[in-house]
Amino acid sequence: LQTIRSSQKFVSIVSSTLKEVGTLRSSITDIVSEAAEHKKKIDVEIDLAKQSFSVAKAQEGEIEARVEEYRNKLAMIDERLPALNGEKKRAIQAKNFKAAGRVTSDIKKMTADREVVSKEMDGANVELNESVSLSNDLQDKVQAKEQELLEKTKEYDYHRLDIERKQRKLINRALRRIKRIQDKDNSTSDGEN
Asked: Which of 13, 19, 56, 187 is 20 to 30 A distant from 193 in Cα terms?
């Protein structure tokens, strides 16, 4: 009779432990699925942010090239204007008013060109600053998404490990209870002999 009760207790312990372990295993499966889904989603967001960053960096390079082109044009104009002014003075001193008029016309054209190029360069500098700011923001977004992925992965890992720890505790507790029943059965059977 004692053996039957012990067997029933044993079956009950094993059954309840297996049910609880099954529930915990199901939780682990859910966590692993959720983690994989979340990782896939964040990976897509990271890829999009990296692509946007690459496009912004390319645009930044194009704008920098335009700024450099404007800078070179301004340098050429600034280099040429003093020479034209000197040529104009020499033409006036030589009383060559026709040549002085032509040079004056060139000076006016170059001064107007300089103003246009200067405005274009100012606009390109503003555009460049905005582009650099956008690139920095996108780079920060990539880093933030990568950090989010890392933190979420840790969170899921800790949660999974916690469930596995609970499983081990359940199994160890069941094994201790079974051992107690066996020890009790052994002491009872020893007492009968």
From this structure: 13
Please state, in angstroms and rounded to a whole number, the distance separating the CA atoms of residues 116 and 96. 30
The 10s digit of each residue's pLDDT in 30-67 is 888 888 898 899 899 889 989 988 999 999 999 999 99
Phi, psi values for residue 95, rounded to 5°: 60, 30
* Reported pTM: 0.62
Nearest Cα to 53, choosing from 136, 154, 145?
A: 136
Distance, CA of 156 to CA of 92 (rounded, Å): 85
Which of 144, 127, 159, 152 minimizes the C-alpha distance to 61?
A: 127
- Cα–chain-centroid distance for residue 178? 52
> For the chain, what is the radius of gyration of the CA atoms?
41
- Model pLDDT, residue 110: 94
What single letter denotes the amino acid at residue 182?
A: Q
Phi-psi region at 95: left, alpha or beta (left = phi > 0; alpha = psi -120 to 50): left
What is the C-alpha to C-alpha distance for residues 172 and 169, in angstroms, rounded to an integer?
Answer: 5
- In sequence order, what DSSP letters do the residues of 52-96 get, joined into one string? HHHHHHHHHHHHHHHHHHHHHHHHHHHHHHHHHHHHHHHHHHTT-
Tens of pLDDT, residue by residue over 118-170, are 999 999 999 999 999 999 998 999 899 899 989 988 988 898 888 888 888 88
Q: Check if the beta carbon of residue 131 is closer than 8 Å to that of residue 59.
A: yes
